[in-house]
Amino acid sequence: MNRIVSGIFLILILTAVMAGGCKKNKDEKPTEVIPKVLDFEGPTDVIASGMEALEYSVAYRAGSSYEFTSEGWPAQISVPDTAYPNRIRVIWQQADQDTSALLICVETSTSGNVSEPDTLFINILRFCVLTIDDFSGTWTGLSKGDSEDTLTVEIVVDPGAGANTLRVKHIYDTVPGGGEYLPPFMQSLFNAWGERFVPVKGNEGDVLLHINLLSGKLIIENDYWGQTLPGPFNYWTGGDGSWAGCDTSMHINFELYLSTNFSKPNMTGSIDLKKQ
């Protein structure tokens, strides 16, 4: 019985000690945590047109406010939705030479504590603005793929095919017995196959370039290219690329499909063009 009483007494003593150790002074304030900017995200290779708004964000902490600034290159910074102060839109000022910048974020917590600045390093790529009409004219260059060909093509604006759309014209060919149309790209390939595009079928070998005047990008949508003889065979196009206004050039990744299965092109080629 004495052992039992002694054990109970020991437990009571330990409980009292632990309770005393956990007791807090009512005047003691909790330690404030200094915020830290996390997950700073957004495009870091930027074609600086002075027109395209790009989105950046950091991780959100309830109640915090965020200040974004740029260093090294001017930018217009805005918060599109005040409910999400951690998300911004940035328009980098137009640049006629390659340079770099820092995008900086500082977070302030609800208690007023301020984080260390967090930064994104931005590669600013030069961008000389062009209008869609500036693309019209004669372009020369090189096509690489199954063969390597020098090219001379005519490009016209085609508003009927959509806003900011260019038409790379087919080559008129009077070779007897096969029609009168050769494509502007992959000419050697079609010559080897002995094919000619049929009039009034699809784009008759023309290629449509959908130009983004803000970003320097272009897209070739999956479009019916046309039908050729002998065969007949049907073709569709696709691809993407970029244009550079400062030297008026284009790089095109061209894709050729033999069916409407666009998961994998049947033929590919790269085209580099420069305006004359």
What features would you describe in this structure?
The chain folds into two domains: 81 residues, Immunoglobulin-like; 144 residues, Beta Barrel (Lipocalin). With 276 residues, the chain is mainly beta. The protein is 10% helix and 43% strand. β14 and β15 form a beta hairpin. It is built from two helices and 18 strands. The longest helix has 21 residues.
Give me a quick take on this structure:
By secondary structure, the protein is mostly beta strands. Helix content is 10%, strand content 43%. It folds into two domains: 45-125, Immunoglobulin-like, CATH 2.60.40; 132-275, Lipocalin (Beta Barrel), CATH 2.40.128.
CATH topology name of the largest domain, in short, is: Lipocalin
Dominant shape = elongated
Total discrete domains: 2
Radius of gyration, in angstroms, nearest whole number: 32 Å
Total E-strand runs: 18
Share in helix: 10-25%
CATH architecture of the largest domain: Beta Barrel
Element-level helix/strand string? HEEEEEEEEEEEEHEEEEEE
User: N-to-C terminal Cα separation, in Å?
Assistant: 109 Å
- Can you count the helices? 2
Bin the strand percentage: 35-45%
Q: Give the biggest sheet.
A: 8 strands, antiparallel, barrel
Which regions are unreliable across 5 or more consecutive residues at pLDDT < 50? 17-30
